[in-house]
Design brief:
The chain is mostly beta strands and 143 residues long. It has a single domain, classed as Metal Binding Protein, Guanine Nucleotide Exchange Factor, Chain A (Beta Complex). Strands 6-7-8-9-4-3-10-11 form an eight-stranded mixed sheet. The chain has a three-stranded antiparallel sheet with strand order 1-2-5, with no helix packed on it. Bound molecules: zinc ion (2 copies). One zinc ion binds next to loops.
């Protein structure tokens, strides 16, 4: 499947449509993601917010990440499904949890990040690039 992508939370109170392909797809093993993802890594696509439609109420909760940025997780307040992540350094784009998409079959993981915080049993695909923490990158502006 390719764009447009459609998705929802578990209860259907929040639905979304995304017009474009992701800028990247990553697994994140940071501790906050492990708590959000029931002990595993989160699987995330960074998508442009232009052309992204979200219907329903999303609750946002922020925390200060190791980078010093306030990172926010967005979830359905009714069923608790994790749906989004956002970070002020990524203007014009936000993370969508791949589990929210009806079909993420063709979205291949480009990078695995925060491996230093993963449990010993975690498996990292050797064909995918790894970062022990947050990968360096240019100031992300996707307006
Ligand atoms: Zn829901
Ligand atoms: Zn994370």
């Amino acid at each position: 499947m390719s764009a447009p992508y459609h998705g929802s939370c578990n209860c259907g109170a929040v639905t979304l449509t995304i017009a474009s392909e992701p800028l990247w797809v990553r697994q994140c093993w940071c501790r906050q993601c492990q708590k959000a993802a029931a002990g595993n890594a989160t699987c995330n696509g960074l998508f442009r917010t232009e052309g992204m439609t979200v219907d329903g109420t999303v609750t946002w909760r922020g925390y200060t990440a190791a980078s010093g940025n306030t990172v926010e997780h967005g979830f359905c307040p009714t069923c608790g499904s994790q749906l989004f992540g956002r970070n002020p350094s990524r203007e014009g784009a936000q993370v969508v949890r791949l589990g929210a998409l009806d079909d993420a079959q063709n979205l291949k993981v480009n990078a695995i990040i925060w491996t230093s915080e993963a449990p010993d049993w975690a498996y990292f695909d050797p064909k995918v690039e790894h970062w022990s923490a947050q990968p360096p990158g240019p100031a992300a502006k996707f307006a």
